[in-house]
Amino acid sequence: MTTDAGAAGTRATDDRMAAVFGLLLAEVDPLADALTAEILDGEWAYAESTLLDRGQLRGAVHDNLRALLSTYLGQPPDLDAPRAAGRLKAEQGIPLAALLHAYRLAGRFIWDRLLAVAVDQDSTSELLHMASDMWVAIDEYSSAAAEAYRATVEERSRRDAAARGAMLASLLDGRAGNSGWETVRILGLDRQGPLVVVCVEGGDEREPLAALETRLRAQDVGSVWLQQAAARVGLLAFADGRAVADVVERLAAATGSRIGVSRPFVSPVHAPHAWHEAQLAVRCLPPRTNGSHVYGSSPVALMTAAAPDAAGEVVRAVFGPLRDLPEQEQAVLLDTLEAWFASGGSTALAATRLHCHRNTVLYRLNRITDLTGRRTSDAGAAAELYIALHAVRQGVQ
C-alpha cells in the first residue's frame, strides 16, 4: 500500500522527468538537425542515397523525435510517424538494416541528451529508472517502421510484377507493335541469343513466378512471366541457343507440369505467333503427364492439337467398335498397338516391351484388325491407326 509520503515522492519524480522531457521537446527543431547530421555521418546508406534528400530525412527525424518525446511525457504512442518513415525509406530504396540502425542511433542520441539535461536538473537517478521504458518505446517505434517498410516493399513488388506482366501481355497479343524491342529492353531480355515462349500448364503456382525467374537467372536465362487462369506464360531470353533444350527440361522437372515450347525466334514481332505455338505444344502431350514438347517436333501430335474436333472424328471412324470395349480390354489392345509402332512393326520386339509371348502380340493385332477393319500390314491402314492412337493418347475422345 502506497503511503502519502511515497505518493508525494512519485509525483515529484514524475514532475522532474516531465520537466526534463519538456525541455527536450521545446528544442525538437535543433535536436532534429543534430540527429539528422549524426544519421548521415553514421549510416552510409543514407549518405550515399541519391533519392532521399536531406530535407526528407530531416522531416522524418523531426516527426519521430516529437512523437517519441510526447510518448515519454505520457501521451499514447503515435505510430503514424514511424510508419511514414518506413514507407519513405522503402520507396527510396534505403535498406531495412539502415532504417533500424537509424532508430538505434536515435535512441542513443535521445539518451545522451536526456542524461545531459538530467544532470543539470539533478534528476539522473529518476532517469535511470526510466531507461527500460525509453528503450521499449524505441523498439515499438522501430518495429512499426519495419512493418510499414516490409508492407511497402511487398506492395511495390506486386506492382512491379503486375507491370512486367502487362508488358509481356502486350508482346504476346501484338499490342506492343513497333515498340516491341523497347519493351524487351525494359524487361531486361535484350540478349544476343534467341527468345522462346513457354506455356506451363496449371494455375496452382507450385512455384511462385518470382522463384521461376530466379531459377532461370541462375542458368543465365532472362525471363518474365504472366499468370493466367490455367497456365503460366513465360518469355525466355537465352544468351546461347544451344541451352534451350536443357533449360526447358529442367523447368519441366521443377514444375511437374506439361510445358509447351515455341520455336526459337529473334524478333519480338514474332511473339504472338510463338505464344500460339506454345499453347498448341502443351496439347501435344498426354493429359495428366509432365514433360516438355517443342512445337513442330511431332507433326502428328501437332495436327491433333490444332484440330481436336477433326481428330475426334478420326478416332471414331478408325477405332469404331474398339472404343466400345470395356476400359481394361481397350487399354490392353491400345498398349499393344503402341508397342508395335514403337518397335518398328516387329512383333518380337513388341513382345519384349510388353513382357509377353510374340503370339500374344499377333493375337491382339488380329483382334484390332477384326474390330477396326484395318490391318497393320497395310501401310495406309497402319497410318490411320497410328494417327488415331496418337489422338487418343492426347486425350481426344
Q: How would you classify the helix and strand content by structural class?
A: alpha+beta
Radius of gyration: 36 Å
Average pLDDT score: 84
Distance between the termini: 87 Å
Uncertain segments: 1-13
Q: Could you explain the architecture of this structure?
A:
This protein is α+β, with helices and mostly antiparallel strands. The chain is built from 17 helices and five strands. A five-stranded mixed β-sheet has the order 2-3-1-4-5, sandwiched between helices. α11 links the parallel β4 and β5. α2 crosses α6 and α13 packs across α17. The N terminus is likely disordered.
Main attributes?
397 residues, Globin-like, Alpha-Beta Plaits, disordered N terminus, 17 helices, elongated, five-stranded mixed sheet, 8% strand, Arc Repressor Mutant, subunit A
Summarize the helices and strands and which ones pair or pack.
Elements: H1 4-26, H2 28-42, H3 44-48, H4 54-72, H5 80-91, H6 96-120, H7 124-172, H8 180-186, E1 195-201, H9 209-217, E2 221-227, E3 231-238, H10 244-255, E4 258-261, H11 271-282, E5 291-294, H12 299-306, H13 308-319, H14 327-342, H15 347-354, H16 358-372, H17 379-393
Parallel strand pairs: 4-5
Antiparallel strand pairs: 1-3, 1-4, 2-3
Helix pairs in contact: 1-4, 1-6, 2-4, 2-6, 4-5, 4-7, 5-7, 6-7, 12-13, 13-17, 14-15, 14-16, 15-16
